[in-house]
Amino acid sequence: MRLALRAVVVVFSAIFLLFIILPIAAVFLRVTPSELVSRLNTPAVIDSLKLSLLASTVSTAVVLVLATPISYALARYDFKGRWFLDAVVDLPMVLPPAVAGLALLLAFAPRGLIGGVLASRGIILPGSIWAVVIAEVFVSSPFYIRASKAAFSGVNQRLIDSARILSASDTRVFLKVTFPLAWRGVFAGLVMCWARSLGEFGATLMFAGNLPGVTQTMPLAIYIALSSDLQVAVVLSVILILFSFILLAAVKSLGGQRTP
Amino acid sequence: MISVKGIRKAFGSRQILREVSFDVSDGEVLGLVGPSGVGKSTTLNIIAGLLEPDSGEISVDGVIVTRSGVSVNQISFPPALRGLGYVMQEAALFPNMTVQENIGFGPESQGLSKGEIAARVNKLLLMVHVEDVRDFYPDQLSGGQQKRVALARTLAVSPKILLLDEPLTSLDPELKTQLMNDIRNIFDVLRATVIYVTHDSEEADSMVDRIVKIKEGEIE
User: Is the Cβ pair B50, A259 closer than 8 Å?
Assistant: First the structure.
């Protein structure tokens, strides 16, 4: 019986891994290392790569600053309507990208809910890098909030109680006890948020548009290159896959380290 | 002096404390004794300000630090302003800090100078016999050492009142006897007012001046 179970595990795992690896291998097999290097120097690749890295880094920083307080509150405080707030912050994760893009347009475009006010002050978001950042913050923030909330929740309440009795202010408790014990989860959340931002496509296309050098991120450049130069799409895909894998490996390796 | 009057506390439909009242005089070591699950730790948590009672009043040296209930003005001092030290049942040492950092955490929070903190930490390391593990992290310590460090960390903020929740639990007999003697010595030296919680009547007999028994959320 045990042998049969083991056989099922091995066979199904092999089929599943093949299913994941096969499409990725198909991308890598389409380009030689020398072609990869030479294509990296084309303006389309360099521009979209730069823009993607810049926008995803800025959006991750924005998420860190804006979303950490709510993530901490959801993890550590018991208040009325917490379940509702929890559902609201998770919502962008389950929304179809087209809906997210449309919602951002209806809110921030010049004829949108608050876009008119912004436009009257000369701020037109669609078609700018800020629209890319906003779209990425919108869709990737739940990945950070989920991970950091779990990390903050995992800190033993007795440690926090002890720190409070030992005259520590709330800020000191957070900086010296809660955050140092939760940082691995917070960091993992940031990495997932960054990776999700890097791969963001639908909401960015709808809200920010597809302007080379301005709003055309790597996923958008891949989409456009499919109909003009397939090899550029392949090169960009290889870069995205490599980045994503390195990020995931970094997060997984953190999980295996000793908690302080 | 601590005065605990008519404390009641329920968690959901479960009434943990029905009516808990007792006084502790200055310098007295009071034992709060009873089997597991009768509300001893809940009582300490309420005195420490970590839990709000449903009703009742607690005063320290004549100052009301907790008052709850219908038709009374609610009072709740934060834990740090109660002048208490609390050694919890689990040592609850900060796992990201060394032994000396754990002990120095309270004095640092109180804004003492580096020199004062170092002097206080060194004195306490010697007092509870953990000077040789000062740079160790909590997960490198034995159960007995963890209890000693927790005691030193609590004493580091010079509390007027000491709350101890089963400080000798889950220790082997030899360690238990050693720590018992050390804690008793500390009580004598500090002349602190102490509430000592234990389920063990024999332990209470040798550690405390007076015993108050608690059963099913009520003082017997």
Answer: no
Closest residue on chain B to A157 (Cα): B92
What's the mean per-residue pLDDT of chain A?
92
The full set of domains in chain A, from first to last, is 36-255 (1.10.3720.10)
Contact B86 A163 (CB under 8 A): no
For the stretch A107-162, pLDDT in tens is 999 989 998 899 899 899 999 999 999 999 999 999 999 999 999 999 999 999 99
Helix ranges (H only) for B84-197 are 99-109, 114-127, 143-155, 173-190
Query: Is the CB of B106 inside 8 Å of chain A's CB atoms?
Result: yes
Smallest Cα distance from A259 to chain B, Å: 8
Kindly determine whether residue A158 and residue B90, on different chains, have CB atoms separated by under 8 Å: yes
DSSP letter at A258 equals P
Q: Which of B79, B95, B137 sits opposite A165 (nearest CB)?
A: B79
Following CA atoms B214, B215, B217, B218 in sequence, which dihedral angle do they give, to the nearest 10 degrees? -70
Q: How many CB atoms lie within 10 A of CB A184?
A: 18
Complex prediction ipTM:
0.91
Residues of B in contact with A158 (CB under 8 A): 88, 90, 92
Q: What is the per-residue pLDDT across B29-59, written as a single tens digit (0 to 9) for each? A: 999 999 988 999 999 999 999 999 999 999 9
pTM over 0.90: no
